[in-house]
Amino acid sequence: MTDETAPAPAPIAPPTRAPLSLRFSARDLLNVAIFAVIYFVIVFVFVIAMLGIVSPLAMLLTLPLAPIAAGIPYLLFLTRVRHAGMVTLFGLVVGLIYLMMGHPWQSTVVTVVVSLLAEVILRAGGYGSKWASIWAYTVFSAWFIGPWIPFFLDRAAYLRAQSAGTMGADYMAAFDQVVTVPAVLVMVLVTVICGFLGGLLGTAVLRKHFRAAGLA
Hints:
The protein is mainly alpha-helical. Helices cover 68% and strands 0% of the residues.
């Protein structure tokens, strides 16, 4: 009587990623449009609800939290990215939406640039790396510096423009005291760090989606 060992089960192959291509299908464009709008709405509503017209200090303290809230839809979008160009197009759509909402043109340029950098990171990971997705979102979150470029270029002119808006004199006086160049730079740095945390949160919440998409 011979001992027969059962054959070892064959390893389960991870889902294969589609070949890299610059051709956009209707589904690709639909995904870009849907998730760009979702991302915009979450950031916009979060910003208005959490800081908006409350106080300049509240703005500095709560604005960096927006990338954490928006990390889930962005990371979910990345599970649907199959080739180069989709992330850059996503950034272009988001940048144009904010431009129509009154952001300076420099903000759109910054958004496209950081989207291109995110694209490079994803490409280095073969569009199949969880950590590449996290770092791509971290870099993308640096777009939050874009709306502040006019502030850095000419703070006095920026304050005059804000004073001409709907904010009252008391608010603008507090803004002048609290919102300094160093404070904004620190806020942007914290925002990028929160982008990393948002990437971690997104991958944790969407673990099943990442496995199904073959993102390891």
